[in-house]
Automatic annotation (TrEMBL):
Source organism superkingdom: Eukaryota
Transmembrane segments: 43-67, 79-104, 254-273, 293-313
Record's GO cellular component terms: plasma membrane
Pfam families: 7tm_1 (PF00001)
Protein name: G-protein coupled receptor 54-like
Lineage: Eukaryota, Metazoa, Chordata, Craniata, Vertebrata
Recorded topology in the membrane: Multi-pass membrane protein
One Gene Ontology molecular-function label: neuropeptide receptor activity
GO biological process: neuropeptide signaling pathway; positive regulation of hormone secretion
Annotated SMART domains: 7TM_GPCR_Srsx
UniProt domain G-protein coupled receptors family 1 profile: residue ranges: 59-310
Swiss-Prot/TrEMBL keywords: Cell membrane, Disulfide bond, G-protein coupled receptor, Glycoprotein, Membrane, Receptor, Transducer, Transmembrane, Transmembrane helix
Length: 354
């Protein structure tokens, strides 16, 4: 039998191989001479995860370094971006290594405490990422609709307070996860132990799955995230409140791209979890197993794409990177022409006053 509790409903890092008969291969009832087959994903997926971890840790650490080192970069928008980078780093450290270990290993070998702890931290980072994206969208909406008042109220201290509140709320909301996470026994080429979420009933499992998924999708579809893309009814006030129309457009476009990438990366695995949890006709096979692997790789890739977005769409990020590492860009900086006019005014990573 497949262990459906191991799917980690709503978790940012649902179990991949913590299932009995996770593929179309036959299940054996504990003959000691038989060993689990070594599939290609046993080494290919961990290698891919290692690459994502290296790129993600380097990129997100660089984002935090640049924002913390340069005072002009400590704006409201950049605080939310630093918060996103923090959630990605925590996710890469607390989720990726343990999930990667499930591919070559037949069972969970890290003990019950780590099972609860890892599941909890994974859910916390997922919740913090979703709410931070929402806060970033609300921030852009506020700048667009209330440009003058935003100059007074949108401060770095306010953004830092909101970010702190996001973390506190994420830790509190995720408390049920370690309660339902536990070590369970199963069979796959012999007796194995798995880290799964064990619910007292299917109804409880469905309640655990649906609110979390619907909350994430509602946050992603909320009007504040789309509002920066729509024109404000007060263009003259916008001109006074923002440094330039070009700067405002670049920031809003970058936020939209971040939200779109999050949806594209996390949509497949969330859809897979929902179909598996709510569809009685769902059939486990090696084809669905490979589909699940692809969905996991997509979701994990989201933790390293944001710094790439900043590098391509944030002109000030590139400038700050050059200032932080002048030896790398010494020749290029020396011949770089000075910017003209106000259209390319410093965005302080993505923006100065916004």
């Amino acid at each position: 039998k497949m262990s459906e509790a191991g799917e980690g409903c709503g978790s940012r890092c649902p179990s991949v191989l913590n299932e009995s008969c996770a593929s179309a291969l036959p299940c054996w009832n504990g003959t000691a001479a038989l060993r689990p087959p070594l599939l290609v994903d046993a080494w290919l997926v961990p290698l891919f995860f290692a690459l994502l971890m290296a790129v993600g840790l380097a990129g997100n650490s660089l984002v935090i370094h640049v924002i913390s080192k340069h005072k002009k970069m400590r704006t409201a928008t950049n605080f939310y971006i630093a918060n996103l980078a923090t959630t990605d780093i925590i996710f890469l450290v607390c989720c990726v290594p343990f999930t990667a270990a499930l591919y070559p290993l037949p069972s969970w070998v890290f003990g019950e405490f780590m099972c609860k702890f890892v599941s909890y931290i994974q859910q916390v980072s997922a919740q913090a990422t979703c709410v931070t994206l929402m806060a970033l969208g609300v921030d852009r909406w506020y700048v667009t609709v209330f440009p003058l008042s935003s100059l007074r109220r949108r401060t770095a201290r306010t953004a830092a307070t909101v970010s702190l509140g996001i973390w506190i709320g994420s830790f509190l909301v995720s408390v049920p996860v370690p309660v339902y996470s536990s070590i369970t026994e199963g069979e796959w080429y012999g007796p194995q132990v798995y880290c799964t979420e064990s619910f007292p009933s299917n109804r409880t499992q469905h309640r655990s799955c649906s609110p979390d998924f619907m909350q994430e999708m509602q946050e992603l579809r909320s009007p504040p995230l789309l509002s920066p893309l729509t024109p404000s009814p007060l263009p003259q006030l916008q001109f006074l409140a923002e440094r330039s129309e070009a700067t405002r457009t670049k920031i809003s476009r970058m936020v939209a791209v971040m939200v779109l990438l999050f949806t594209v990366c996390w949509g497949p695995i969330q859809f897979y979890i929902l179909v598996q949890a709510f569809s009685p006709q769902f059939q486990h096979s090696y084809s669905t197993y490979k589909l699940k692997i692809w969905a996991h790789c997509m979701s994990y890739a989201n933790s390293c794409v944001n710094p790439i977005v900043y590098a391509f769409m944030g002109a000030s990020f590139r400038k700050a990177f050059k200032r932080a590492f002048p030896c790398v860009f010494k020749q290029r900086v020396a011949v770089a022409p000075a910017p003209r006019g106000n259209a390319n005014a410093e965005m302080h990573f993505v923006s100065s006053g916004s």
